[in-house]
Amino acid sequence: MFAYTMRRLFMLVPVLIGMTLITFSIVHLIPGNPAQVILGETASETAIKNLEESMGLNEPYALQYTYYVSDLLQGDLGTSLKTKTPISEEIWPYIAATFELTFFAMLFAIIIGVNAGIISAWKQNSWFDFLAMLVALIGVSIPVFWLALMEQWIFAQELSWFPSSGRQDNRDPMEPITYFFVLDSILHGDFSRTFTVLKHLVLPSIALGTIPMAIIARMTRSSMLEVMRSDYIRTVQAKGSGQFLIIYKHALKNALIPVLTVIGLQTGVLLGGAILTETIFSWPGVGRYIYEAITYRDYPVIQSGILIIAFLFVIINLVVDLLYKFIDPRINY
Amino acid sequence: MSDEILKITSLQTHFFTDQGEIPAVDGVSLTVHKGEVVGIVGESGCGKSVTSLSIMQLVPSPPGKIVGGTIHYKSENLLNASKKRIKDIRGNEISMIFQEPMTSLDPLFTIGNQLREALQIHKKINKKQANQKSIEMLKLVGIPRAEEVMNDYPHQLSGGMRQRVMIAISMACDPEILIADEPTTALDVTIQAQILDLMKKLNHEKDTAILLITHDLGVVAEICDRVIVMYAGQVVEEGTTREILKNPTHPYTKGLIRSIPKLHEKDQKLYSIPGTVPKPKMGMLGCRFKDRCEFAHDRCFSEAPELFSLGNNRYSRCFLLDDTERKVASDAEANTGS
Fold it and tell me: CB burial class (10 A; 0-12, 13-18, 19+) of residue B62?
């Protein structure tokens, strides 16, 4: 297990280098000179030249890249052009917001998706199977923005069960500690606030979790069906064990690897690509942060945002790889 | 012997497929007595595996379904038993091992876990006791370093070792009957002999009856007391191993025995029964072996032979053994000169 973990970690190095190369080249691939972009159309020649020098833009690319990487290693993500504050200082609340939303969306997707997939496979061709797979098909086909708007209309506006936007009651904001609001409200010992924060999470989590839920349900079902036909399941049956043990011990564990792969990929997608949902629900997450940076042409923020999302994606896949080994002792690469 | 522990009468297991209803097992009757080793022999596709899966009610359903007959374990008809009762019997009173030791064990759980599971389903024992009993079982089936193997995963063991583990699992609860579906087919010859010896030993020591499904008459000769020959979903011949091998009466059995390579006939081409097993279908006319039989005559094409009793628990499904046709038989034998 230790050797496997070390090997996986070592394999991260080329991936990380590739990632930083791509984000590094973004600045140099945009049309025009970065200094020109920063200072605007009307800047004078000398002002541009001075800025280029202070930013190190006149150095060779290789040297610039090593500066970039050594800055990154020291936790320096650059400075936002718009707010003039270091990105590493202002980005955390956005990451925390996205983490929290992704966590609850995936929780919803995994609990419903995996169980629906298991029951569908168990009772193959039953009414439940047909209904669940129909819902899953609709789930993958629904555009997220439409689902989000419908949720707001029905559950926020018409029924008033849940708030329609934001992370908490904005008239009465709490003092953030970790910026994970559920955790913060518990740290404050204010459980009525925990309840309010959770209520804010319901609609965006469902909107964001529906597609992963549908994909997970379909993957679980097909994987389970394949495993249920295998010889070792027949052996367990021949031992005289009950359906529950067969399905939740032997079949589920064997069916889990493809499901886990999908969960990992979907989590990565949610962490980076929730711009639509975050915009509709006014959720101050990474997606919105980058989206706003793009509209302001705030290149350092775009660069760092992409880098962070890519980094998270890689980390999630690393965790998934380590879990593989935990599930299947035969895996060794 | 009157102590019958398994009695199957006119079992019919059909498969309902897109191509129609297939009677994979069509009226099979057989009996296993306490402590007896009974072999079921036949080519692939003759219904021997389906018969064994029917006893355990493990026929994949859909498409398979037991549509007729009875399966009596002691005095209880298993086909009328509740699902819970079947679960109690499986692995505890009747257990089963399969052809493919490579895929029959769950790859994600240790040997110890899978052995303990068999014990803990049926016996009220704690984990420590189950562990002890599991190690005992591994030693019984001749696995060296039993304590270490408990923590191994199936992929760390060889095919022969895995089949030993399968036998240990199936024998863990001291079953009355062990059904072995081609237990040695996937193993190489030296390992085959070891596994057969092991089964013989368990049969003697624990008095467990064994129903051995195989296509290998050599295996039958090695350990079976009695043999049932199946063809296209039916029993075609039944008798003691000695009688069947020395004096086969059904042309199919004769063909099977002739197909065994013999050392002193080195130069001759190995005999094989011409043609292949017909795919069983509903409403088959005449004898099922007629198209491959060298003794086939008009009656074989118009009428299905029944299982004729030859006395002394010997049966054969061939018109040549109908008393009125004995003469025809001897003529035919004389003609071919065999």
Answer: exposed
A238:B92 CB<8 A: no
Return the pLDDT at A131: 93
Which chain A positions have a beta carbon within 8 Å of B153's beta carbon?
329-330
**Structure token pair of residue A306:** 């992409």
Question: Contacts of residue B118 in chain A, CB cutoff 8 Å?
Answer: 239-240
Pick the residue of B96, B104, B134, B174 with the most A CBs within 10 A to test the interface with A by mutation.
B104
Look at residues A51, A88, A53 and name the one whose alpha carbon lies nearest to residue A72.
A88
**Domain limits, CATH 3.40.50.300, in chain B:** 4-93+173-336
- The number of distinct structural domains making up chain A is 2
B338 to chain A, closest Cα gap in Å: 44
**Which of B87, B98, B106 minimises the CB distance to A240?**
B87
CATH of the domain at A239: 1.10.3720.10
Are B117 and A236 an interchain contact pair (Cβ–Cβ within 8 Å)? yes
> Once rounded to an integer, what is the mean pLDDT over residues B297-311?
78
Question: Residue B337 pLDDT more than 80?
Answer: no
- Residue A236 C-alpha, separation from nearest chain B C-alpha, in angstroms: 8
pLDDT higher than threshold 60 for residue B2: no
Q: Is the pLDDT of residue B262 over 90?
A: no
Question: pLDDT band at A233, cuts 50/70/90?
Answer: very high
Shared-domain flag, residues A68 and A214: no
**Does residue B334 surpass a pLDDT of 80?**
no
Percent helix, strand and coil across chain B, each rounded to 5?
40, 25, 40
**pLDDT at residue A325 is higher than 60:** yes
Which residue of chain B comes nearest to A256, CA vs CA?
A: B108
Q: Does A243 touch chain B (CB under 8 A)?
A: no
At A67 the pLDDT is: 87
Residue A10 belongs to some domain of the structure:
yes
pLDDT at B35 over 60: yes
Strand partners of residue B231: B234
Residues A12 and A50 in one domain: yes
The count of other CB atoms within 10 Å of the CB of residue A24 is: 19
CA distance A109 to A98: 16
Give me the sign of the Cα torsion angle A274, A277, A280, A281.
negative
Residue B114: closest C-alpha in chain A: A236
| Band (B1; pLDDT cuts 50, 70, 90) | very low
**Do A269 and A208 share a structural domain?**
yes
Whether residue A26 sits in one domain with residue A108: no
Q: How confident is the model at residue B299 (pLDDT cuts 50, 70, 90)?
A: confident
What's the token pair of residue A136? 């899953």
Q: Is the Cβ of B166 closer than 8 Å to some Cβ of chain A?
A: yes
Given CATH 3.10.290.10, say whether it is the number of domain B4-93+173-336.
Answer: no
Residues of B in contact with A330 (CB under 8 A): 107, 153, 155
